[in-house]
Design brief:
178 residues, alpha+beta, 3-stranded antiparallel beta sheet, two-stranded antiparallel ribbon, SWIRM
Length: 178
């Protein structure tokens, strides 16, 4: 299911691979992400242009994704309803409880978190991040790197997101939207 969902999302252009570099097979990843940002900084420096760069890292990335965000992403990207129902059933079964020497809690339904190690988790995480990135993408124009060279104001590798803006007010707006 993971490979079919990934293929569906990429073939239909639902994941912007010029922004999100992680979790998508055959898309250059971490090294390209870091290199592009480094090149943008060097270019702005040599052209004596203003460039605001903010690196963000989502704490407990997989564990902090609300299941409702996954449901929203599945609907937003027109994933077939039978797949949505299957994934809903899967996530509604996430439960845990705590024990010590003298006490065990009742089972608690989890409403947040994607299972590490599950083959579908990376693409579901990318979908959730894409919802967040899309909500913020119009907050700023492309960063001006001089010589008619521009870079999108957002770059992401899984949960590592970088804001790159030429104007401080756009940087602030983008950060607030994220």
């Amino acid at each position: 299911m993971a490979s079919r969902l990934t293929k569906y999302l990429t073939e239909n252009g639902y994941i912007n691979t010029s922004v999100q570099k992680g979790g998508i097979p055959r898309v250059s990843g971490c090294l390209e992400h870091a290199t592009m940002i480094w090149e943008a900084i060097q270019r702005a420096k040599s052209e004596k242009l203003n460039l605001d760069v903010i690196w963000l890292d989502l704490a407990n990335a997989y564990g902090s994704v609300p299941h409702k965000m996954i449901q929203l992403a599945l609907r937003m990207y027109h994933v077939p309803e039978d797949i949505q129902v299957m994934l809903d059933d899967y996530f509604s079964g996430f439960r845990m409880r705590f024990s010590n020497n003298s006490y065990t809690t009742d089972w608690i339904n989890l409403e947040i978190g994607i299972a590490m190690g599950c083959t579908i988790s990376p693409i579901l995480f990318v979908m959730a991040m894409e919802v967040i990135l899309k909500a913020a993408e119009d907050s700023a124009g492309p960063a001006n790197l001089g010589g008619c060279c521009y870079m999108p104001p957002l770059k992401a590798f899984m949960d590592d997101t970088t804001i790159i803006c030429s104007k401080e007010d756009e940087t602030r707006r983008m950060l607030e939207r994220l």
